[in-house]
Design a protein that fits this description.
Helix 1 crosses helix 2. The protein has five helices and 23 strands. It is of the alpha+beta class. Strands 1, 2, 3, 4, 10, 11 and 12 form a seven-stranded antiparallel β-sheet that branches. The chain has a five-stranded antiparallel β-sheet with strand order 13-14-15-22-23, with no helix packed on it. The protein is globular and about 50 Å long. Strand 6 and strand 7 form a beta hairpin.
């Protein structure tokens, strides 16, 4: 299978809430949007609005598309991904924005009060459409990969559904609305590009699967399934469930499914001598590449 790669930016037009679905974090939002949320919103947009996600379309999307994790951006280009340092400090983006500065500018629990969410939902956290301090437009940026095996005309038509998406768990009253700013095809002779312009970390779509390649120590730019760590010499960060009691496609999960843990974005990875290679799933979740 061969792929086309696109760097993608969405303008946030109404508050976005991507929750944790557990009691201790019931009102918190994640400070990024997992690929699973982007993928399910895309599948919903392809189908007839208001009819839910068509199971057949969802299977096709999972087969022919890969969505990375999308991160908040102040300019539609530079992502503010979390970065955990070896000293235990947490920053956002290459500009090393502090956690306090990030939440002060891009997160608010007051934003939901402008919408009729009902009792018990008015204090939810949201990624806000407008910078709380500078009053400028906020964006989400990430990557979308499209297979060459699904019929170019058909999939190109589907890509037009990216023009407007509703993401997250709160989509009443047009909440969670993001609108496409650009879908920029990445042209590369070897089908590789630096992952968010980070030195020594690459995206590689030259083979059957999309991969993230770490040649230098750096932050995870998506969830990584916990498990075999033989391809790297060190990992420092936090594990959590990516979904919880209800998954990102609104399906009730079993206790076994909900207990699955992943290393979170921002976790520090120290690759092995020959580098570390992670396979990227359709939902942006990374998995350690096995031998063979």
């Amino acid at each position: 299978m061969s792929w086309k790669a696109y760097f993608t930016a969405f303008a946030v037009h109404s508050p976005v809430h991507v929750g944790y679905h557990n009691v201790s974090h019931a009102h918190r939002t994640r400070y990024y949007v997992p690929g699973g949320n982007m993928m399910s919103a895309f599948a919903s947009a392809i189908d007839v609005p208001g009819k839910g996600i068509n199971a057949e379309i969802l299977r096709e999307v999972k087969k022919y598309f890969v969505f990375s994790t999308f991160f908040v951006s102040r300019n539609g280009r530079d992502p503010l991904f979390p970065v955990l340092t070896e000293e235990g400090d947490l920053f956002y983006g290459k500009e090393r924005l502090s956690l306090w500065d990030f939440t002060n500018q891009f997160i608010s629990a007051k934003e939901g009060r402008k919408y009729d969410l009902g009792q018990g939902h008015s204090d939810l956290e949201f990624i806000v459409p407008e910078n709380n301090v500078k009053k400028t437009q906020n964006y989400l940026v990430g990557y979308i990969f499209v297979s060459d095996n699904g019929g170019e005309d058909r999939l190109s038509g589907w890509l037009r559904s990216l023009r407007e998406l509703y993401i997250g768990e709160e989509t009443v009253n047009r909440m969670g609305n993001v609108q496409l700013m650009f879908l920029e095809k990445i042209v590369s002779d070897d089908n590789k590009t630096p992952f968010f312009s980070l030195e020594g970390i690459y995206l590689d779509w030259s083979g059957e699967r999309v991969k993230a390649v770490y040649e230098k120590t750096g932050p995870l730019l998506g969830y990584l399934k916990a498990g075999d760590g033989s391809s790297f010499v060190g990992i420092y960060g936090v594990q959590e469930s990516t979904e919880g009691r209800i998954d990102l496609l609104k399906n009730v999960m079993s206790a076994d499914e909900a207990s699955g843990k992943c290393w979170v974005p921002g976790t520090l990875v120290r690759p092995g001598e020959k580098g570390s290679v992670f396979i990227m799933g359709y939902d942006g979740i990374l998995m350690v590449k096995t031998k063979g």
